Predict the 3D structure of the following.
Amino acid sequence: MSRSWTGGPRRRYPAPQPERGLLRRLADYGLAVILLGLLILLAARLDRFATRTAEGAAIINDGDSITLGAERIRMRGIDAPEYSQVCRKDGVDYPCGKLSRQYLVGLIAGQPVSCSGWQRDRYGRLLGDCVAGGKDLNRAQVVAGWAVAYGDFETEEAVARAAKVGIWGGTFERPQDWRANHRGAPVEARHSPLAAVGDALREFFRFQ
């Protein structure tokens, strides 16, 4: 006599899943690290393109670079003679780099300066559009002939050249060419805060 099964339906148990291998887990961890790195890189790029503004009393380094607090500024769109650069007029050499800086000192005249920009040059300086007393300093340097156009202000340069003002009154080497021929020269002259006091005193007595 055969026996018959009278119980309920047979319970089915899921087959055990094999554990993922070590290589698969390492691949997952690696992918997570890569994604995290990409997010950090994206955040850094967005921060780089954010407009920054620096304000305060300026230390004038040369005709196109200043320091505001801890922020070094390279004035955007212009290129002034380097501080130690010499130009020539009426057959005589003269320190056009120092005169370019001195003209910028006169434009600022001890007033607070505000510079804004979002790019930086290869030396880490902020490429800024700078204003003092409502005056566009970048444009004013080119109009006066103490800086050449460098990606902007070509119209202002043409006017200065035609009027033979500033360095256009004689002969000179374009600042970028001068730098190429004087690779050992510093990128910018460094001046201490005491230099700003000296600049202010010179400007004061110049108008007395």
About this structure: The two ends are 132 Å apart (CA to CA). Residues 54-173 form a domain with the OB fold (Dihydrolipoamide Acetyltransferase, E2P) fold (CATH 2.40.50.90).
